[in-house]
Amino acid sequence: MKHNRAIQMLRLACLASLTYTSGVLAVEDNPPTVNVGVYAVHSGGKITYHYRVINNTQQTVSAVAIGRNKQNEGTPDNDVYELLELPSGWNEKFGIPAASSNSPTGWRVSTIAPAEESITHAISWEPLNDKSPKLPAGQTLAKMSVTLDKADFNYLAGHALITFADGSPANLTVPLEPLDYTPPSLTVSLSPNTILSQPNKFVAINATFTSKDDYDRMPEIKLESITASEPLEADDIRDANIGLDDRYLKFRAASKNPAGRIYTVTYSATDASGNQTTASATVTVTAMAAPVTTPVAPPAAITKPVAVAAPAIKPAVVQQDQGEKKKP
User: Fold this and answer.
1) Are strands 34-43 and 171-178 parallel, antiparallel or unpaired?
2) 16, 65, 136, 145: which could join 161 in a potential S-S bond, CB 3.0 to 4.6 Å?
């Protein structure tokens, strides 16, 4: 009797993996499974990883372990633990502090490791007790998050071990699926963006940004490169820290080209899920203008005044009166 029942259960299991297509019995290529999605955000200088579990099977999920890969090969005690960084504030006695994690109602979160001194571990969520709600078939479980002091890519690209309440199947390993795969938008502005050519002077340049992301409100900004339209001297650029969030630079206000010099500054914006975009802005050093000379008029000819001789003055002649007679 027990043998016949076992055969019936095996037949039902086989039929469950088959489906009809156009009236023909065919094996289903993608049987229902559990989807575990993940995205990350920057938060107060730390990184928080958020998880969402969708149960597409007909069983009830009773535990979810992030970063644990059982490899689905049937070999016992062959699990791979994938996570390196521990949650912020974790300690051996109290585990993960409430400020560094979030759990669904009636669930708790903890760390698990293959050995006490292991350098790798997993993060597990499970119901508090037998009366706590589990994840039934067709339902979604959210509000699962853990905060780290620094990024660990394994929290995004590892696996999740799903445990079912009825023990059949005992567990299932699924890859984590990214929920955030769109890079943030980024625009860069430099001020001032035009400076006059003054070869012995350095001008301070300030960079400002506009950035937006679907999930992460504070993408990480980094200075990627500074180039110019003409060869640069070793000290033409000062106070620039490539690879850091450096928004204050100094450029030499010099140009060897009649068309002027153009500095091109490139920044990147990277969200906590690893999506990155770049944007550039320019600063133009205007060419040094040739000095303007005003033509000097030739000196005017100097002429001496011509002396004019005064007319000669003749002595006056006194004429005698003709009627006057001479005295005897």
Assistant:
1) parallel
2) 65
The string of DSSP letters for 182-198 reads -PPEEEEEEESSEE--E
Say how far apart CA 155 and CA 113 lie, in whole Å. Answer: 15
What is d(CA 255, CA 262) in angstroms, rounded to the nearest whole number? 9
| Of 86, 47, 44, 52, the residue nearest 273 (C-alpha) | 47
Residues written for the chain? 328
Instruction: Give the count of alpha carbons within 13 A of 215, CB side only.
Output: 22
Q: For residues 185-203, b (16+ Cβ closer than 10 Å) or e, as one string?
A: ebebebeeeebebeeeebe
The model's pLDDT over 96-147, given as tens digits with 9 standing for 90+, comes to 999 999 999 999 999 999 988 899 999 999 999 989 999 999 999 999 999 9
Residue 322: per-residue pLDDT: 46
- Distances in Å between the alpha carbon of 201 and those of 112, 181, 187, 194? 60, 45, 28, 14
Architecture of domain 31-178: Sandwich (2.60)
| Sequence-distant contacts of 163-171: CB under 8 A, at least 24 apart | 163/61, 163/62, 163/63, 163/64, 163/65, 163/126, 164/57, 164/59, 164/60, 164/61, 164/62, 165/59, 165/60, 165/61, 165/62, 165/134, 166/59, 166/60, 168/59, 169/59, 171/70
Give the start-to-end residue ranges of the domains of the chain: 31-178, 185-285
| Fold assignment, 185-285 | Immunoglobulin-like (2.60.40)
Tell me whether the CATH fold assigned to 31-178 matches the one assigned to 185-285: yes
